[in-house]
Q: What sequence folds into this?
């Protein structure tokens, strides 16, 4: 079976969407999507709220209650039958996210097991046939076929084949 | 730089030793080292205490307070200068161990960073030049040079080159 390595945040889960929803409810502030270009959706929030956003990301529970990306469950359920699927999340920067991410995954994707999750600091360490990720820094060193999963912060990237949503992932991987 | 992938439990940390110390203090029971052969130090505890040992492993805090293997800090500090060191621990089976393992690592090995830690379910996913691990199931699929780190449960294994302790690791990697 071919191996597909799939990123969690901004690919399966929607931390940016959750943070923006919360921020607009609490502060009613404007989001600057232009500032996100270059790799970080966090930069879309105003300078004077950066520390607070970071604190919320570092806290307990934030990654436990994220929305699941549309069509992700259905497509991944099928992919899991046909490929060796591994979910790889760069998570060790956020100690409180680790258990949250595991529980979130097993709740929303009950067909996956703990054996399929990797929580790491650096994705250069993993290998496989395909990688789906929203960050160039993660795709860069991967030796298999790479797909950039479209996200607000990577709209300016042109060097990679894209997957714009999970319907498209299904068209590529389940044909 | 060559990449060395190093296991945590029974290689850097001593969960078996910690569990035996606690068990003998609490219950004064005998440990059957013969039963460990075949891959699991947990089987060294009597049948009627298996559930309790498992519960302790699954609980919060167990992996936070483990002893560090002798000479591990000094040798690894040097290795970290000369190699690309990654610590890879099969940990997602134990949700409460994840944050504990990260904090334990950064406390005892302050020269390592969160970028160097991977908490996974399956080590087939990682690649590098060397792997040091006490489990055949982890070494088996690795494509680089493999070293079996000696532990009570693997004394009967003959197919791998061994590292018996961190002094020996130093002789191999720091010559």
A:
């Amino acid at each position: 079976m071919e191996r597909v390595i799939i990123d969690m945040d901004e690919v399966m889960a929607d931390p940016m969407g959750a943070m923006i929803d919360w921020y607009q409810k609490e502060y009613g502030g404007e989001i600057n999507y232009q500032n996100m270009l270059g790799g970080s959706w966090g930069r879309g929030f105003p300078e004077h709220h950066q520390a607070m956003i970071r604190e919320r990301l570092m806290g307990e529970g934030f990654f436990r209650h994220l929305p699941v990306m549309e069509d992700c469950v259905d497509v991944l359920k099928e992919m899991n039958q046909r490929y060796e699927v591994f979910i790889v999340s760069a998570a060790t920067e956020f100690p409180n996210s680790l258990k949250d991410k595991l529980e979130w995954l097993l709740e929303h994707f009950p067909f996956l097991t703990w054996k399929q999750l990797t929580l790491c600091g650096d994705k250069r360490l993993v290998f496989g046939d395909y990688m789906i990720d929203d960050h160039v820094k993660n795709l860069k060193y991967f030796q298999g076929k790479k797909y950039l999963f479209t996200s607000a912060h990577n709209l300016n990237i042109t060097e990679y084949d894209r997957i714009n949503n999970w319907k498209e992932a299904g068209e590529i991987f389940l044909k």
In short: The first helix of chain A runs from residue 15 to 27. The longest strand of chain A covers residues 84-90. The mean pLDDT of chain A is 96. Chain A has two domains: 3-14+65-173, 15-62.
